[in-house]
Amino acid sequence: MLPRPDHDPALTDLLEKVYHARGWDFRNYKRTSLMRRVSKRLNALSVGSMGEYSRFLEADPSEYNRLFSSVTIKVSEFFREPEVFHFLCKLLKSDYRDTAVKAWCCGCAFGEEAYSLAITLTECLGAEAIKNTKVFATDIDPEAVEQARRARYREESLWNADASVRGSHFFPVNGGVYKVKYGIRNLVKFGALDIVRNPPIAKVQILFCRNLFIYFNKTLQEDVFEKLDYSLRPGGLLVLGKAEVVPQRFSSRYPRIDKRISVYRKAE
Ligand SMILES: C[S@@+](CC[C@H](N)C(=O)[O-])C[C@H]1O[C@@H](n2cnc3c(N)ncnc32)[C@H](O)[C@@H]1O
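Above: inputs. Below: predicted complex with S-adenosylmethionine.
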């Protein structure tokens, strides 16, 4: 019988190897999902064991990048969970109307979420406030960040955006590809940032960190949450993914402000 991923020493050795060779620290990512992603690479290469895969990495170091892409899953879309953006818009109109906002999208993949947030801020904040508003958008994967800056998307990723949003903030480029308009692109500043290893962005009022904690074990969720907590101003909004919750250690300071969606307000 194969060892469970939690206890599989061959997987542990592989993660150590990756960490020492490239600095990517997946050692506290959830083992079950890591095992699935690594197994995909083994299957793609017709490699029979973790030991053999480790030797393959030495013989062909470009495989490190393919493993990295496989582990850092970048599934996203514009206005993912649309109810989050509707809720945020209402809150911006009532509580933030004339306030310039510093927002951060941590784990932004190819930029869909960051641009969705920038569109929401543009449509729901007052004209003066938007002039000094900025969305910082970061991801561990520098290539994804580079692609996000290009702001070109296939129509499928826009299915949650209605005709008026498409018309106001995108223009068609060719063959089913849309580009985000300059006004929105100009609000977003992209950068590579590994939230496990790097310090966070400071003094943020709105922080999106969705569908990233699901890949972390409990210890790493708590360690990373400490960084998010440092980053967010008192009274600031934290948006997590549908299946994610604030770790228990912090929950008394992060009341959930709507029971249907994962939006929390940090205590003042
Ligand atoms: C499933 S995507 C989520 C994208 C978007 N937040 C959403 O919910 O649609 C997870 C993203 O987290 C990024 N990621 C994984 N580990 C990370 C880390 N240590 N630091 C920053 N980003 C990370 C991945 O590269 C990927 O783009």
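The mean pLDDT is 95.
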